[in-house]
Design goal:
The protein is an alpha+beta fold. Helices cover 33% and strands 26% of the residues. It has helices at 55-66, 71-82, 88-98, 104-108, 136-143, 147-159, 164-167, 189-198, 208-219, 275-289, and strands at residues 18-26, 29-36, 41-44, 119-125, 129-135, 180-184, 223-232, 245-255, 258-264, 296-301, 306-311. The strands form two sheets. Strands 4-5-7-8-9-10-11-6 form an eight-stranded mixed beta sheet, sandwiched between helices. A three-stranded antiparallel beta sheet has the order 1-2-3, with no helix packed on it. Helix 5 (136-143) crosses helix 6.
Length: 312
């Protein structure tokens, strides 16, 4: 799949049939394991000394770099948290190795970043706490070609009426019977999701949703905001509702002028059951931003799969 860190099989020397197969402990640390479905053999990534560290240590270090800290500071932060102090050259090798999946590393090199100003956070009390966040640098970059999203985010900060999120129906609870095609997408999202879920300690206070959202916002070059509140007034929909319909979009990516609404679903055994919720998210975002519907895609994903919902 695109963006996955896949090795070539040592037997057939191709990567076409190679899949990730967990990890194993060695005297030097934890290394990734792989399995070739064609040759039916399992092997480890022992070719690079830069991978002989637990994956969460590698990801934590890259994440601090992507937060705007210099490599020297990221190294110290990793040493303080995990008691590992990898050489600076090793950290640069990690950044290079992961740049095709943690794509913000490529963008980050071009800018001098202030970690305290990079991400704006609002904790919205809408019946429960929603961590609405946006990435200032990426939002500024993508707003040059798609300014409508930035204007809506600014409006949310200034004028959003909290009350409509406390009394009206939620998009996740309504059924609208829209027909759609579910298309599986070959992308790096599942691998990124796996990394996100494995990057934090098991006793982390973050929920799986928060882990995924935070990881994508920091490490992906196209993810600009998380938990964005959206709504539809009764007059804007054919649904028989008396109060505004509302919801919170897990992730929004901007790619080539198109908005991608992404919803993380731990259970994707029946992806069709999420058609209505994502369709309402798209309708609400279109109304709030006036972005054409054909420029808004809706997608669901987890660590195993990634699907696009295409309206008929």
């Amino acid at each position: 799949m695109k963006g996955m860190l896949i090795m070539k099989c040592p037997n057939c020397h191709t990567e076409k049939n190679v899949i990730g197969y967990g990890q194993r402990q060695t005297r030097k640390g934890i290394v990734r394991r792989y399995h070739c479905k064609r040759c039916r053999i399992t092997f480890s990534d022992s070719t690079s000394p830069h991978t002989q560290y637990p994956e969460n240590v590698i990801l934590h270090t890259i994440e601090q770099y992507n937060r705007g800290y210099p490599v020297t500071v990221a190294r110290k932060m990793t040493g303080k948290k995990y008691q590992y102090s990898p050489p600076i050259s090793t950290i640069y090798a990690w950044i290079k190795r992961y740049e095709d999946i943690l794509t913000f590393t490529k963008l980050r090199r071009k800018y001098h970043l202030d970690p305290d100003q990079l991400i704006t956070v609002h904790k919205l009390d809408h019946g429960q706490i929603y961590p609405f966040k946006y990435h200032n640098l990426k939002l500024n970059i993508h707003s040059k070609g798609r300014p409508e999203l930035r204007r809506y985010i600014n409006w949310v900060e200034r004028s959003l009426d909290r009350s409509m999120f406390l009394k009206g129906p939620r998009a996740s609870s309504l059924r609208i019977d829209r027909e759609a095609v579910i298309k599986e997408v070959d992308s790096r999202l599942p691998e990124m999701t796996r990394m996100a879920l494995n990057s934090k300690p098991r006793n982390s206070r973050l929920s799986p949703h928060e882990m995924v959202e935070s990881f994508f916002l920091i490490n992906d070059s196209s993810t600009v905001t998380t938990e964005l509140p959206v709504f539809l007034y009764p007059r804007e929909t054919d649904l028989k509702i008396e109060d505004a319909l509302s919801g919170h979009i897990d992730l929004i990516q901007v790619r080539y002028g198109t908005l991608h609404i992404l919803d993380y679903k731990p259970d994707l055994n029946q992806p069709k059951k999420y058609i209505d919720q994502l369709t309402l998210y798209r309708d609400a975002l279109q109304k709030r931003t006036s972005i054409p519907k054909e420029k808004i895609k809706i997608e669901i994903f987890n660590q195993y799969s990634h699907y696009e919902i295409i309206q008929k």
